């Protein structure tokens, strides 16, 4: 005799948010010089705007610092060129053939760079690092525009400059003057469009704005009726959509502060559901995929008190109903093969012979055809 076995699958949800991680993204490694990008050290004041493509940056994230590759020969460079301002913006533009409106740019740094900002020392060659006062939230849905102005009176040596990379499109625009000028009042006689950009390094704390990694997993089956929902995203808020048809999802909850949600009522058995999460961060919207899953049916436990005995040339089996669920019939297995099914709580097997050993096990099945 073999007692019926129970295999209970338990899904344990560990809702966790993938942590953000820092990386340095370098764009450009050219040796082009003396085109006024990002600054023109050999004049008193200069200003530039440059565009860097989303495909070059590689993903969304929080920009905490930028670096430009310099080659400085004069000892007076630091005194005459270290007072700067930096602005940033996300833009659909792919070229800069004229000035981008200053009002569309956000100020991210203003002040004097420390001497430690120059990795190769001064004079020397290295990367000029600017730790942003206000980290910039880059969405990766647009390109990145960086504007920079030298506010220091005085000028460096004629050979002091920055390394740039050439490009077929106009990636930068620059101007300079011997007298200071207001942002937006750019000197037209020294304004030049450049088919190049300065070599750049971005300090980027990568983020995952678009919701991914759903729980329940996409196309999951046998999902509990009281399941909780979770996803991975570092956005600030979320809208949760849910329904029976993917093209008619209803907004269930908006402005969620955590990447998780639970419905107030249990789901229906043996039903396919669809859901979607829309994330929001700093006025930007990130729409996740439509996911689906299939719920479980009625939970049913194995039959209880399964017994077997030999009497009058037959094997007699008996059992009691499961403690959980409603069984509509029972499946009797003999030596691993289905021998019979019955709605009764007993069964007699007359196809047995003296001297042989037989094994039996039993399964309960409900009206939804679930075991």
How many domains is the backbone divided into? 3
- Distance from first to last alpha carbon: 21 Å
Topology, number of strands: 28
From the 3D structure, determine the CATH topology of the largest domain: Jelly Rolls
Radius of gyration over all CA atoms, rounded: 35 Å
Summary, kept brief:
This protein has 371 residues and is mainly β. The protein contains 2 helices and 28 strands.
Describe the structure in your own words.
The protein has three domains: 186 residues, Jelly Rolls (Sandwich); 84 residues, Sandwich (Immunoglobulin-like), CATH 2.60.40; 62 residues, Immunoglobulins (Immunoglobulin-like). The protein has a six-stranded antiparallel beta sheet. The chain is rod-shaped, with a radius of gyration of 35 Å. The two termini are 21 Å apart. 2% of the residues lie in helices and 47% in strands. It has two helices and 28 strands. A hairpin with a 6-residue loop joins strand 17 and strand 18. By secondary structure, the chain is mainly beta.
Secondary structure layout plus pairing:
Elements: E1 21-27, E2 45-52, H1 54-57, E3 61-72, H2 77-81, E4 83-91, E5 106-112, E6 124-138, E7 143-150, E8 161-162, E9 164-166, E10 172-177, E11 192-194, E12 196-198, E13 200-206, E14 212-215, E15 220-223, E16 228-232, E17 237-243, E18 250-256, E19 260-262, E20 272-281, E21 284-287, E22 291-295, E23 304-311, E24 314-320, E25 329-334, E26 337-342, E27 346-349, E28 360-365
Parallel strand pairs: 15-22
Antiparallel strand pairs: 1-13, 2-7, 2-10, 3-6, 3-8, 3-13, 4-5, 4-7, 9-12, 10-11, 14-16, 16-19, 17-18, 17-20, 20-21, 20-22, 23-24, 24-27, 25-26, 25-28
